[in-house]
Structures are given as structure tokens and as C-alpha cells.
Amino acid sequence: MKVPPGVSPEDFSDALKQWEGIVGKEWVFTSDADVAMYRDAYSPFYGEEDELVASAAVAPDNVEDVQKIVKIANTYKIPIYPISTGKNLGYGGSAPAYSGSVVLDLKRMNRILEVNEKNAYALVEPGVSYFDLYRYIQEKGLKLWVDVPDPGWGSPVGNSLDRGGGYLYKEYRNHFDSHCGMEVVLANGELLRTGMGAMPGAKTWQQYKSGFGPWIDGIFSQSNFGVVTKMGFWLLPAPDSYLAGTITVPRYNDVTPLIEILDYLENTGATQGMPFLGSPLLARGPLGQAGPVPDPELTALLADPNGPSPQAMDAYAAKKGIHHWSCTLGFYGAPKANEANWEFSKEKFSAIPGAQFKDSGSMKLPLTPEQQAHFNLPEFGIPSLQMFSIGARSAANPTPGEGHIWFSPIIPRNGEAIFEANRVFRQSAKELGLPVPAFSLPTCYWNRAFIFLFGFPITHDIETNKKNRVKFQKLVKIAAEHGWGEYRTAPAHQAAVMDTYSFNNHALLRFHETLKDAVDPNGILSAGRYGIWPKHLRESKS
Amino acid sequence: MKNLFLRLILASGLIFVAQAASAQQQPSRSSAWTRATVNGEGQPKGYVQFQDYCSMCHGEGPGQPGTMALQAKYKGAQPALLSQRTDLTPQLIKLYVRNGISIMPIFRKTEISDADLDLIADYLTRNNKK
Fold first, then answer.
1. A390 and B18: CB-CB below 8 Å?
2. How many angstroms separate the CA of residue B36 from the nearest CA in chain A?
């Protein structure tokens, strides 16, 4: 049996016995085989001595038991690491940030406590997955949509606390922003409710976010200040119809006005779904199929160390008769409004000479199963795992890795930033010996900034992983030098990323540490998560 | 119409993944998983559990990552659909579920209980030669 660091075997044994008394022997895991299931399947330290692993796991099924378990951990100063569904793959999975912690596995807390159709919200426990919530809504025939992230096996609680994103209206696809009200077990076992939940008998816990006084919900995201045991989420009333419209523009520099017009349309509510930027010129084949061999002429143009020459790119595109960029908008709601908004969008984009348009026509929702086959399901609030097709073995990817982690910097929302980021990351990739990207476009999860998503392969080869970890952190630094910061990262890199948020001698991290010491003086909760270490580990770990 | 929606494009990122899919790629299809649509009546033992826990990756259709991976691996020498295999053993099934394989992660006992895993193994070995 492993023993957590800083804990005596006797104390740990006592705690395990007490935990068994609370949840039953079946739900306290201490055997090597059982504990190994809490490894991060996509760990960048896989198989190394430094791999972040649990010493044990305990899995309560209700909040009272969470309180008791946490109290015991606090008494014996045992480090614990709460997870919800444990499927935050690419950003840490189910393994603790501080090796040897006991995983507090909340997967069994899988109750959908309330779904209110009229007011369009849900209140759920951490073990509820997006699949579960979707299924529940379908079973009850409720006219509601859940904004889901790409992998449907995650939980609304876990994904939003890690500040994940989805695909629907901007008010919903920022999953943390769409939450309304939390219940949190603090390090001393005390129960806290935020927002209107702080008022006994309040009838608006899931209707009004901020309650009264400082709004503290944010400190429980990407942090280690409490164990969130319930969260409310605003759901989207099922829209009546959908229309997809794609704009293509011919010239290299057209991406700048394309984004400016897109921003206007999105921020005035003329278009609702997450926009997709694309490039007909640079397009390859569909997923899992080998695409055409890139044209050497195009490859050479893209490889210009100063960035592609707009004139040369335009001449190439004109010769091929293919437009440079595309943007696909999703319109949701009343059919006539969607059509009017698309017409309005076309008018605006027509300011770009040569812009062309095509659309899907108005489609009644929900989609039929036949229609679903042609769409990216999360854009319709339907959870799936289809995104994993990208990393899985396929004709185009015959030797897949063992997983991936994401390098995911936030960059400014404008065309110049896309060009600059491509120049910088292309040059960095070359210098670091990484596969050099042809050209990358950002994703539009957040309507006020772009995010670049680059997958780093995880292998089971220790030397390769070691090299990749160094390269990853170099990229983090290079990005920070350009003012681009990671939005989220795996525990292996959390301290390095936090280090880039260093304004005024790390005032923000020092504030986090002050909070940490106040709300969790024994430092038992998720030590090291997001680079926040408790006092007794701060010097040795920072 | 389909092309209109093949648009995840470079947005899918992955630029540093050697050999990985790149520009203009979009997973093509996958069925929504919902227990509500699973009718276990008249189905073999373990069918419902397989549908609940496995079918979102190992179901039918080209956008199913598990099915796609097994097609690429066996190239028809074995069925890409796990539910059509006749050579799997319960031990192998449990090994993969509890340890993961390639990008398929580990499934813990709080996700798939030992009892449900036994049923899944029953289902996937139902057509094996006895």
C-alpha cells in the first residue's frame, strides 16, 4: 500500500478505516491494480518515476459523505484530489497534481437534481456526464439543449470548473460563464453555497448568479480552494430551426476584414453559434482519410521565414481559382430571423470584394438521425466522442500516439494576430524540432479572443516524452513573450504557465497563495493544482 | 451539402502531432449515445451495458473513433465492430478497459463496475466458439 507524502502509515491506516466506515470497503481503493486506474492515461510522465499518481482513492456518493471524508483528511493532513468524471484527458485526467494524493472520486455522485424546463436550467452533481444530462433531457422529452464540449464523457461540473468551451450561443459555450450557483465543501468539511444559494429558502439559486456581496464562484475554477459538489447551469431552450452560412473570401489579407465583420455580427447577436474559420485553399481530405499531397509550390510559399507573401499567395490562389479563407456561421432560432440575419451578414461581408456565399437553407430542428450523420453533433447540443477520431488510428494516422496534451494559447481576435502567431509558432516549431505546421487557424470558442489549439503527442517512450515536455514549456515561454497565455493546461505544466502570469512580481499567484493559506491552512486540497501550492510545500515545489 | 460542414479545418489544431490529421478535417459522424434509445428487450446479455459504455466509440459509422481505429489496424482481417468479433476473451476485454490502449483511456470501477464489465465481456464473447 502506498502512503501519501507527509503522512504516517498509522495515520493513513486510521483514515482509510474511517473512510471505509463512511462509504463502505468497496469504495475505498488501495490495491495497486485499483489505484493504477487513476493514472492519467495521457500523462506526459507516463511510466516515469515522476509520474503523478494516487496513493489511494475514495468514492463517496453524497455530499454529507464528502464532508466527512474531507474532515478526516484535514484532521490527518492527508492530501486529497477531487475529480468529477476524471475524463479531463489532455489536461490531466484523473491523476492528482501532487503525486501520492488520495483521489476523491466523485463519479458516483451522479444525480441530476433538477432540470427546470420553463426557466431552462439544471442543477447537477459532479459525476453527471454530458451524456447523462442529454439522456435525461431526451427521456423526459424536455425542450432544452445542453452546450457540450467535444468529448461527451466529461461532466458539466468538471468541464466548467476547468473553464472548457462548447459550440452554441456565446452565453452558453463558455461553460464556466453559463453556470449559476455552486455548492462547495471547504477544507474543514463545512458546506458553502454561492450566489442566491447562500440565502436559506432562496428560490432563485439557478436564476440569479451573483447573490449579494463579493461573487466568489471564480475562485473555485482552475484552483484548489474547495470541493464543488453541486452546480447549476443555464440551458438553451431548444431552438426551432438552424441555418449554416459560409462566406469565402479570395485574398490572403481578407482574413482581417473577415474577422472584423464576424465580430460585429457576433457581438450584436446577428449570428449565434460558434463560428468556424477555414481555408478552402489549404484544405485537406476528410478525417481519417489521407488528404491530397500538398502542392510543393504552396508548401514553399507557406515556408517563407518572414511569413507568406500576400502577393505571392494571392497570385497562387488566383491561379488555382480557390478562395483563401472561409467563415461558417451558425444561425439558430426562428426560421425567418435566421434567414434575415444571414441576408444581413451577406450584406456586411459583401464589403470584401469577391466574397462568395453558400448556405444550408433553413433546417427544422431537431435534426433527423439522417441529418445528424452530416453534422458535428456538439453544434446541436448532442454529446459524442467523434472528436477523438483525430487522434485515433486511421488511414491518415497509421501509428497513433498514446494520447495528447494541448498547447492552447489565447491570442488577440484579429487577422494580424493570426499571421503573427503562425510566423512565431512556425519558426518555433522549426527551432524545437517539432513538425512544422503549414498554416493554422484559431478556434472561436470565446467570442472576444481566439484560441490556438495544438496537440502534443503523448507516447510511452520516456525519452520522447521528456523532450516534448521541454519543448512544450519553451513554447509556453515563447507565447508569453508575445503576450499570448495558455487558457488551461495539464498539471505537468501548470506551474510553468502560472509563472507566465507574472505581472508585478507574481501578484496574482501571491494572492492565490494568500487565499489558499486562509481557506485550506493544512493544504489538503489538490496541492499544486494550477501552480498553487500550500504553504508547507511552496518552497520545495515552486 | 456535406462539404459545407466539413469545416473544422485547421481549427482542429493538432499541428504538432506528427502524421496527424490536418487542415479541413471534420469527424464525419457518430450517433448520440443515450440510454433512452437502448432497448435491451430481446437483446443478448450485456448489450445494454455495451451500448451505454462503449458504443459511442465502438458503434457503427465512420466517425466512431474505436471502430475507425480497429478498421485501420486489422484492415478487414477482423471485424472493425467489436460486437461482431468472435476472438475476444473476457480477460483481454477487461485488460483494455482497465488499462486503456492507444488513445482509449482507462475506465475506473466508479465508471464501469466490475459487474457491468462482466456483462460487457459476456456480450462481446457471445459468438465465440465454445
1. no
2. 6
* Parallel/antiparallel/unpaired status of strands A191-193 and A179-185: antiparallel
Q: Residue A116 in 3-state DSSP?
A: strand
Which residues does residue A165 pair with via DSSP β-bridges, in sequence order? A174
A487 catalytic per annotation: yes
Return all residues near A344 (Cβ < 8 A) that are at least 6 apart: A265, A270
Q: Which helix (H) or strand (E) holds A330?
A: strand A325-333
Asked if the C-beta of A478 comes within 8 angstroms of chain B's C-beta atoms, the answer is: no
Rounded to whole angstroms, how far apart are CA atoms A160 and A155? 8
User: Which set of grid coordinates corresponds to residue A46?
Assistant: 507516463
Question: Which residues is A248 bridged to in the sheet?
Answer: A326, A356
Q: A147-162 pLDDT, tens per residue?
A: 999 999 999 999 999 9
Helix (H) or strand (E) holding A428: helix A415-432
The order of strands in the sheet holding A102-105 is A28-29, A56-58, A102-105, A80-83
pLDDT in the model for residue A303: 86
d(CA A207, CA A196): 8
Residues in chain B: 130
Q: How confident is the model at residue B65 (pLDDT cuts 50, 70, 90)?
A: very high
Q: How many CA atoms are closer than 13 Å to the CA of A168, on its beta-carbon side?
A: 26
pLDDT tens digits, A182-240 = 999 999 999 999 999 999 999 999 999 999 999 999 999 999 999 999 999 999 999 99
Known catalytic membership, residue A91: yes
Closest CA to A345 of A242, A415, A450, A264: A264
Task: Tell whether A284 lies on the interface with B, counting CB pairs under 8 A.
Answer: yes
Check: CB of residue B117 under 8 Å from CB of residue B94: yes
Examine the residue annotation and report whether A163 is marked as an active-site residue of this protein: no
Alpha carbon distance A249, A280 (integer Å): 10
CB contact under 8 A, A287 and B61: no
- Per-residue burial over A108-119, b if 16 or more Cβ lie within 10 Å, else e, is bbbbbeebeeee
Q: How many residues does chain A have?
A: 542
Q: How many Å apart are CA B9 and CA A263, to the nearest integer?
A: 19
C-alpha B30/C-alpha A380 separation (Å) is: 13
C-alpha cell at A107: 463519479
Per-residue b or e along A69-101, where b marks 16 or more CB atoms closer than 10 Å to that residue's CB:
bbbbbbbbbbbbbbbbbbbbbbbbbbbbbbbbb
**Cα distance between residue A160 and residue A385, in whole Å:** 18
Please give the Cα distance from B7 to A329 (Å, whole number): 11
Instruction: Write down the pLDDT at residue B112.
Output: 95
